[in-house]
Amino acid sequence: MNVGIVGGGINGLCCAWLLQQQGHAVRLYERDRLMAATSSRSSKLLHGGLRYLENLELRLVREALRERDAWLRRAPELTSPLRLVMPIYRDSR
Questions:
Q1: Is the pTM for the entire model greater than 0.90?
Q2: DSSP code of 17?
């Protein structure tokens, strides 16, 4: 099946990648550079739910960790682990 996707941000690229993996012919349409708007607003980290941890949204942390691990397995050439050090202060949440 031929599929056209409008938008070369993270969602468009992921949809295109998944459809291509399933054997579809995919054409991606983007007005500017791929990820041009997304990249300027993103840390580009598969964060594993750090932003949810502060609010103790543990279900979302678990979901983000699973998604991160899936990317590490599926596309190791596009991902790499990065160790981060986060200071935790006695008076912080």
A1: no
A2: H
